[in-house]
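Re: the 110-residue chain
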Amino acid sequence: METSSLTGDQLVTVLATLANPHRVRVLAALVDGPDYVSRLARELGISRALLQVHLKKLERAGLVAAHLELSADGKAMKFYEVVPFALSLTPDALAAAARTLSTAQPEGTE
């Protein structure tokens, strides 16, 4: 994902998603590779339920992806990983994004 490939609404959603410090910490924890929810929650010191809320928002914004893996004992484990992205906020990029904004407020910006 790159800034130039996003519509105005998508850019607003991504920026609103990144405006939360918990979500920035989640992304930082996933930089070194995929991790599963329980271990990630322990590492970040937050509940699995709260982590799942943040992961869903990150996934909807296109910043993380998830996949299921089976552990040796047959448990399904959901792993998340960062989707490569490069955001470059310049006045020109914002002007281009603004031209594609809808009149509706994008999800996650309330």
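Residues 48-60 form the longest helix (13 residues).
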